[in-house]
Amino acid sequence: QKEVEQDPGPLSVPEGAIVSLNCTYSNSAFQYFMWYRQYSRKGPELLMYTYSSGNKEDGRFTAQVDKSSKYISLFIRDSQPSDSATYLCAMTTNAGGTSYGKLTFGQGTILTVHP
Amino acid sequence: NAGVTQTPKFRILKIGQSMTLQCAQDMNHNYMYWYRQDPGMGLKLIYYSVGAGITDKGEVPNGYNVSRSTTEDFPLRLELAAPSQTSVYFCASSLDYSGTTEAFFGQGTRLTVV
Fold first, then answer.
1. Which of B 36-95 lie inside 8 A of A, CB atoms?
2. What is the 3-state secondary structure of A2-55?
3. What percent of chain B clears pLDDT 70, i.e. is strictly above it?
4. For residue A8, is pLDDT > 80?
């Protein structure tokens, strides 16, 4: 079983739609959760991070974590063509200790928002 | 501010050849990482370094070697290239290992082994 499973998509939605991206994980030691956005032929860029169960909002983006279910989500409201990219969930265990910032990634979801 | 710079951007290698993927960062970050990204597989950690002179293996280290002689540079060496090493390689760096610290990625090196 993979430590992190991400709904692979791909997703194609019309402009203005609400997008839901999801990951599940099996390692209960994961404490920090991130979403990275990767445009075509570019490196990933951090979009959001969170470390507690519940919701965190940043503009049109909401990150949701449910530690009891080992499930995280990213919601995009009013999606735009510029949101077209691959979205990667990533996780790490305790800060410090032996984690050293090593990230475990999901497989990525390719999102296309068409005008 | 250049961030994380990777060279080359593209490379085609023949089976058995060797090469070094270069990575340099100008943010004075102690922590540096090498990941590979295969289609539909996400990113997997190859090696990482917590400072000059200190490196350790990640999830998929076989067939690779690294060194870290300076804070800025973290080259990845492929000794005997194999088709299974065809992938996109990303170097990343971060200021510390806090779970809330952003990792900055380079633009990647696309490697094909034929």
1. 40-45, 48, 50, 56, 58, 90, 92, 94
2. CCEEECCCCEEEECCCCEEEEEEECCCCCCEEEEEEECCCCCCEEEEEECCCEE
3. 98
4. no
